[in-house]
Specification:
The structure is a single chain. The chain is globular and about 60 Å long. By secondary structure, the protein is an alpha/beta fold. The longest helix is centred in the first third of the chain and has 21 residues, at 2-22. A hairpin with a 6-residue loop joins strand 6 and strand 7. A five-stranded parallel sheet has the order 2-3-4-1-5. A two-stranded antiparallel ribbon has the order 6-7. The protein folds into two domains: 65-276, P-loop containing nucleotide triphosphate hydrolases (Rossmann fold); 281-334, no CATH class. It is 52% helix and 10% strand. It has 14 helices and seven strands. It binds adenosine-5'-diphosphate, 2-acetamido-2-deoxy-beta-D-glucopyranose (NAG) (2 copies) and magnesium ion. One 2-acetamido-2-deoxy-beta-D-glucopyranose binds at residues 64, 66-67, 70. Residues 279-335 form the Torsin-1A C-terminal domain.
């Protein structure tokens, strides 16, 4: 970017000299040349022009909190807690000119409840190309770090990637999916980047964002949601304080959580634990309607009901929550 900007100035200077040379002869050319030169010398306008064609990392760029809020409220169903915490975490972090550490979010909940979905929305609001952006990186444990024998290689690789990408763009976003299947050794490799250091080897990680996704704690979250339901209380009345302590302790004590003994929790490196509630029948229906709308088809309530009724629900006695959340909605819709 800097090199490109300087190049722009060089060209502009060249144009200005040309202007002087032709000034006596052709007023028209002079006008055009001056216009071009002034457009190019203005560093900001040049940068804007450049960023219109190539993706730029603009770390000073503000987050449009109201746009994010609108999008979450419109697209994310049944997750009032996640919506609230994510908004608070991101606006707080992006409004802070001097964060003391990178932002670390840990998203927990049953499969198909919207963790990947939300990460995608968040990514798009930070870098407009979303998951396709050069500044957003998605790692899936089972895909990128599958072999236990190669932990050492993964550690080195991952540290190099994080260092390289944050050097290139301070506001890089890293998403780790399936944390519960990630070897603790790999998590240990990320730890130094998440801490309160001003710099690590000359690179500051304080503007970066790390998002961890896992199913760990999903059973505890479901239990609390179920308790509320059985007590006849509203889902929307579940508050963060009902969940947060159980969540971090529960996750920590679960050997299969991936965060277990990785030192991420005992050193308080996670800023926010974000619970995703299990989805009910009515939420599944909302997902089906959203999918139909996205496909451009008219919403046929008969089909919506039929697809929703094909899903399986638990617990056995009451059948309240969808086993797979909204996960298989898309493929099921193909059959109707
Ligand atoms: N709470 C939700 N609101 C709206 N759509 C959802 C929600 N949960 C899941 N979906 C839909 O189901 C798909 C799969 O969910 P996903 O985010 O991958 O679940 P997971 O929590 O396992 O990461 C998403 O792409 C989205 O279309
Ligand atoms: C933020 O988003 C809202 C809603 O999408 C939009 O109306 C507004 O113009 C945006 N603000 C900025 C500064 O881009
Ligand atoms: C950035 O991360 C990607 C993986 O998402 C990696 O392939 C790439 O080499 C990294 N870039 C640098 C400069 O390290
Ligand atoms: Mg997932």
């Amino acid at each position: 970017m800097w090199r490109a900007a300087r190049l722009g100035r060089g060209v502009a200077l060249g144009l200005l000299l040309t202007v002087h040379a032709v000034a006596a002869f052709e007023p028209m050319t002079v006008g055009i040349a001056i216009g071009a030169a002034s457009a190019l010398t203005g560093y900001l306008s040049y940068k804007d022009l450049y960023c219109r064609f190539a993706e730029c990392c603009r770390e000073e760029q503000r987050l449009n909190a109201s746009a994010l809020k609108l999008e979450l409220e419109k697209k994310l169903f049944g997750q009032h807690l996640a919506t609230e915490v994510i908004l608070k975490a991101l606006t707080g972090f992006k409004n802070n000119k001097n964060p003391k550490k990178p932002l670390t979010l840990s998203l927990h909940g049953w499969a198909g409840t919207g963790k990947n979905f939300v990460s995608q929305i968040v990514a798009e609001n930070l870098h407009s190309k979303g998951l396709k952006s050069n500044f957003v990186h998605l790692f899936v444990s089972t895909l990128h770090f599958p072999h236990e024998q190669q932990i050492k290689l993964y550690q080195d690789q991952l540290q190099g990637w994080i260092r390289g990408n944050v050097s290139a763009c301070a506001s890089s976003v890293f998403i780790f999916d399936e944390m519960d299947k990630l070897h603790p050794g790999v998590i240990d490799a990320i730890k130094p980047f998440l801490d309160y250091y001003e710099q690590v080897d000359g690179v500051s990680y304080r503007k970066a964002i790390f998002i961890f996704l896992s199913n760990a704690g999903g059973d505890l979250i479901t239990k609390i949601a179920l308790d509320f339901w059985r007590a006849g209380r509203k889902r929307e009345d579940i508050q963060l304080k009902d969940l947060e302590p159980v969540l971090s302790v529960g996750v920590f004590n679960n050997k299969h959580s991936g965060l277990w003994h990785s030192g991420l929790i005992d050193r308080n490196l996670i800023d926010y634990f974000i619970p995703f509630l299990p989805l009910e029948y009515r939420h599944v229906k909302m997902c089906i309607r959203a999918e139909m709308r996205a496909r451009g088809s008219v919403i046929d309530e008969d089909i919506v009901t039929r697809v929703a009724e094909e899903m399986t629900f638990f617990p056995k006695s009451e059948k309240i929550y969808s086993d797979k959340g909204c996960k298989t909605v898309q493929s099921r819709l193909d059959f109707h």
